[in-house]
Amino acid sequence: MTDIVKYPIDALRARFPALKRTYKDRTVAYFDSPGGAQMPREVIDAMMRCMEAGRANIHCHFPSSDETMKKLENGRKAIAALFNARPNEVSYGANATTIMFQVARALMHEWNAGDEIVLTEMEHHSNLDSWRTAAEEKGVTAKYIPVDPSTLTLEMGKLPCLLSPKTRLLAIGLASNVTGTINDVKEASRQAHAVGAIVAADAVHAIPHFFVDREELGIDLLFASSYKFFGPHMGMAVIRKEILEHLRVCKVAPASTRRSGWKRVRKTSRRSPPSRRR
Ligand SMILES: Cc1ncc(COP(=O)(O)O)c(C=O)c1O
């Protein structure tokens, strides 16, 4: 009780400009919402500073390019620290869903018809559809850990029967955004790794509420969205280095360091487009 009294709630509230709004002369209250968390002054100011300083492409020879690169690197360091991972394992994306789809589409190149993946009935659509569409394309079977409707928890006792040496991936949420149920990802990872499967965890709902230690939980692919924890609207993936190194991703880096091949484009563009050729 003493701790609750000491909690500096007024000082914390004061850092969120959105909480100063009023409606019909009363201060507003925001409930936990899929629209994302409100932003503290520090984040708003940092974003403003970034835009006011002028932006530039990375990998160019402008001071603003170096500054942009530094910001991206600092962001990777902060995200890595948040999840107990390494900065070079962090990728940015438009949101968690988009980056999950991209990783799933890359990973599916390593799957063969007859392989299996294990999902759960509790997942947000992003952590289902990304893997399911990839599985369908490759003739891979998706199996599901069921939800016990009386407790709103996963029937984890069924997991050993769903896993086999054919299992390539287990995708599981750390916490449900619907029921708040926290899943035993550590035990699920242990069992999945024992059959040689990769473990993907959706940390979108979990990370605003508790610390997610990627190492402790044995997660190989971890996904989150910063707009759920006071940041801008973007997603992030933390992909274990050993997997990232051989993943045929279409795009998880902001820009290529290779030349774009503009000379080739210029040369071919002198020809008429195919429709106008005789
Ligand atoms: C548990 C969970 N997973 C995934 C998502 C999708 O996140 P994003 O909006 O970043 O694609 C959400 C969004 O509400 C979520 O609650």
Please name the defining characteristics of this protein.
single chain; 278 residues; alpha/beta; Aspartate Aminotransferase, domain 2; 2 domains; two-stranded antiparallel ribbon; 11 strands; 16% strand; globular; disordered C terminus; binds pyridoxal-5'-phosphate
Task: Explain briefly what this protein structure is.
With 278 residues, the chain is an alpha/beta fold.
Tell me about this structure.
The chain has 278 residues and is an alpha/beta fold. It has 2 domains: 2-35, no CATH class; 63-244, Aspartate Aminotransferase, domain 2, CATH 3.40.640. 36% of the residues lie in helices and 16% in strands. The chain has 11 helices and 11 strands. The protein has helices at residues 2-6, 9-14, 41-52, 63-83, 96-107, 126-138, 159-162, 185-194, 214-217, 241-244, 262-269; strands at 22-23, 26-27, 90-93, 116-120, 141-145, 147-148, 153-154, 167-173, 198-202, 221-225, 235-239. The strands form 3 sheets. Strands 3-11-10-9-8-4-5 form a 7-stranded mixed beta sheet, with helices on both faces. A two-stranded antiparallel sheet has the order 1-2. The protein has a two-stranded antiparallel sheet with strand order 6-7. Strand 4 (116-120), helix 6 and strand 5 form a beta-alpha-beta unit. The longest helix has 21 residues, at 63-83. The chain starts with a helix and ends in a 9-residue tail after the last helix. The structure holds pyridoxal-5'-phosphate (PLP). Pyridoxal-5'-phosphate is lined by residues 34, 95-97, 124, 126-127, 173, 177, 202, 204-205, 225, 235.
